[in-house]
Structures are given as structure tokens and as C-alpha cells.
Amino acid sequence: MARRNLRQTQYHVSCLTHMAEEMFEVLNDPYNPEEYADCLILLLGAARNAGISADQLIQAAHDKHLVNTKRTWEKPDAYVISRHVKW
Hints:
It is built from three helices and no strands. It is an all-alpha fold and about 90 residues long. The chain folds into two domains: about 1-50; about 55-85, no CATH class. Helix 1 (about 5-30) runs antiparallel to helix 2. The two termini are about 30 Å apart. The mean pLDDT is about 90.
């Protein structure tokens, strides 16, 4: 992985921190596509800053989905969150 200068690191942390804040807005307004778009824009910015293109990110998500479909999953908890079983 290439080393990043301080400005790149600050931008990266800023994007991800802002995205975490935006995720709460999605939770408060889950049917508003603009809230999801805010998260996506910030995620793409952080990925770009890390040297990951949008196409690479989409491919990684597709590959990860294939991995996840082969995993064994626990029953959902009280918050309806299901985690994969770790071997």
C-alpha cells in the first residue's frame, strides 16, 4: 500500500467520519435515497483517496457477496443482525 501524506490521511478520516454521521441520517430517514447517496459519495471519495476506483470497489463488493453467500450465518439477534459463524 502506498504511503499517504498527512493531508490525504486527514481527508480519508474526514470522509469516513462524515459517512458515519450520515449513516445516522439514513437510520432516521430510511426511505430517502438522498441520505444513501450522501453515504455513497463519501465512501467513493474515501476509496478514491485510498487508490481504489469505483469499478474496483464494485468488483470487491461483488466478490465479497459471493464469499458471504457461502458462509454459515447465526440466527439474528434482538436487533435483527445476523453475523457469520467464525471457524
